[in-house]
Amino acid sequence: MPDQPGSTAIDIVRVSKVFGAGADQVAALDAVSVAIRENEFFTLLGPSGCGKTTLLRLIAGFDFPTEGHILLHGADIGTLPPNKRPVNTVFQNYALFPHMTVAENIGFGLEMLNKPKAEITARVSQMLKLVRMEALAGRRTSQISGGQQQRVALARALAPQPKVLLLDEPLSALDYKLRKEMQIELKRLQNETGITFIFVTHDQEEALTMSDRIAVMSAGRILQIGSPRDIYDHPAERFVADFIGETNFLAGAVESLDGSRARVRLKSGAVLEAAVPEGFAPNGEATIVVRPEHARLAEGEGAALAGTVETIVYFGTDTHVHVRLDDGGAFTVRRQNSRGGEDVPAEGARVAIAIPGAAAQVLRD
Amino acid sequence: MARTFDVRRQTGFTTIAAICFALLYLPIMTLVVYAFNAGTSIAIWEGFSLRWFEAAWNNNQVIEASWRSVRIASVAAVLATIAATMAALATTRTKPYRGLAGKYAFINMPLMVPEIVVAVALLIFFSRIKIATGYTGLGYLIAAHTAFCIPFAYLPIRARLESMDQSLETAAADLYANGWRTFRRITLPLLWPGILAGLMLAFVISLDDVVITEFVKSGGQDTLPTYMLGQLRRVVTPEMNAISTVFLLLSIGIVTLFFFMSRRK
Ligand SMILES: Nc1ncnc2c1ncn2[C@@H]1O[C@H](COP(=O)(O)OP(=O)(O)OP(=O)(O)O)[C@@H](O)[C@H]1O
Ligand SMILES: [Mg+2]
Fold first, then answer.
1. Which of A55, A263, A319, B40 is surrounded by the most beta carbons within 10 Å?
2. Looking at the domain assignment, is residue B50 inside a domain?
3. Does the reported pTM lie above 0.80?
4. Which residues pair with A89 in a beta bridge?
5. CB neighbours of B146 closer than 8 A, spacing ≥ 6?
């Protein structure tokens, strides 16, 4: 439940990880802090090489932080080996044991925990049912499809009932349709088991649809943490706004500040109301972002911006209108298509663009 | 390996290949054919007979030497494979460090040092121990064979370890397996084909050895190859051919057996 914070499951406290030494040192993580709540579907989102896998490996215990602490329910687990941490991983390549059957794979963790045979058998069949793989329990893992391997990997990691489940781009090897199916499956499993999921992806759409909260990472740092809606509607930094979805950047200046709202004057002279990120300190210049679907094409006065339609691109569900602003900038408006809906302007037509009060967001940088 | 480009289209390829195969297999074929010679010559054919196989079978010295060869090879191959497995684990399941390449070279040294040098060194070294302890058993031969078999066992095992998906071991650790149980349940079962290959190779190499055995053995410790060498210095009868033929079949049998065992994943 994103809106009622539970107690903290994993607490990452100023964790840094430096690879290599001397001149070719790489700071894969740079003083990262984040508290991941119990029972949460938490996503680490960021471009390739930003340190997602590194952070996951530190939580799993496959590697150790150069600095900082990793707490699980308040206890420091940062120096424990992986087999001593009640945390399991779903590997990107699944890493199923090829010489064991599906059932043996799923039972492996429980066996290593020295659980009684009867309990292992019961739990394995429960897991098989959970991931709908009962029919293939006796198969070798090399004899099942990619999607089925994915399910086995999930069941194997869930069987020992870990406190936290780590998933490193678990869906990236699947084709589009199967990926959509598994996204729903993952959400269902998380709901049914109540286990904290820490999910890694560089697919922003996947992050937005699945997560309770998202941490957007770049170059070894976490830039913003929030609900999908927060991150999408109120990006705090240029990188976040740019990385997630499409967006329009406008130059302007903050005129007055009132808590989390500000009055900004755009370069075009229009004044509008915008949200500001936490800890925002105005210093004259400011960048304002507006999502294409939050702006409207308007008639005549009262509009914030004016320009000429350059191109119109039809997408089936919606239409993108690319406008060249009078001050030289570019702006895109996205319009939902509907049967017999309003007319789309012609290319070359003069248009005005209205920005509703809740649509504009000031960036921190 | 030569399949990456088509050498078969080069001029003279067929001729050269034919000559090479002839050089390789004609002598062996001749040897096998004359094992069935009814006469006492290894060069004049006098009709088909199994008499030389019978003679070899009834020759106590042959049977004794064969049995000794097998015992030495079995013990040496097992010891060498255990050592090689540990060496392979130590050199692949570790973060690369300065001096690792040197360690590879050190382990593979017996492949590079001339055999005759090792033989002489062992002769001198073991003779001191013999004098000091009075022990004259098969231990010396077993120790020597183990030593030179290690690199042969090491190579296939290391190759297998390097090609193995290491995330499997990581996954086992993630699922609460400690180091030993990860090894027993994941690494070892997946390593078996490599270990078997190493074992077979070591066994065949040991069985075949002449130079080091000749130098190290005490009186009455002939292995089959050294016995045959001794015999060849005197009178040569098709009995040698018969023994060689059996030896050949045995080797082919072992290699075939291994081939099928390693193919069954
Ligand atoms: N073992 C290592 N040794 C040296 N550098 C490393 C090591 N592991 C990761 N790095 C570096 O640390 C940075 C972060 O790597 P990481 O694997 O965490 O990225 P990622 O966010 O998971 O990327 P991707 O989306 O491509 O998987 C990269 O610059 C990478 O080159
Ligand atoms: Mg990664």
1. A55
2. no
3. yes
4. A166
5. B75, B76, B79, B80, B83
The CATH number linked to B202 is 1.10.3720.10
CA-closest candidate to residue A354, choices A316, A317, A305, A320: A305
Residue matched to tokens 């255990």? B82
Does the residue B12 lie in any domain? Answer: no
- What is this model's ipTM? 0.81
CATH code for the structural domain at A8-233: 3.40.50.300
Please state, in angstroms and rounded to a whole number, the distance separating the CA atoms of residues B257 and B203. 13
Is residue B156 in a domain?
A: yes
Structural domain including B236 reads 59-263
Residue ranges per domain, chain A?
A: 8-233, 246-362
B116 lies in some domain: yes
Q: How many domains does chain B have?
A: 1
B231-261 pLDDT, tens digit each = 888 878 899 999 999 989 988 888 888 778 7
Q: Does residue A364 contact residue A277 with C-beta atoms inside 8 Å?
A: yes
- Which of B170, B176, B265 has the CB atom closest to A109's CB atom? B176
How many other C-beta atoms lie within 10 A of the C-beta of residue B125? 13
Pairing, β A8-19 against β A67-72: antiparallel
Q: Which atom of ligand 1 is nearest to the CA of A44?
A: 21
Give residue A75's identity as a one-letter amino acid code. Answer: A
What ligand 1 atom has the least distance to the C-alpha of A20? 4
Q: A109 and chain B: CB distance < 8 Å anywhere?
A: yes
Whether residue A298 contacts residue A278, with contact meaning beta carbons closer than 8 Å, is answered with: no
Q: What angle do CA A133, A137, A138 make, to 5 degrees?
A: 150
Let me know: does A127 contact A106? Beta carbons within 8 Å. Answer: yes
Class of A246-362 per CATH?
A: mainly beta
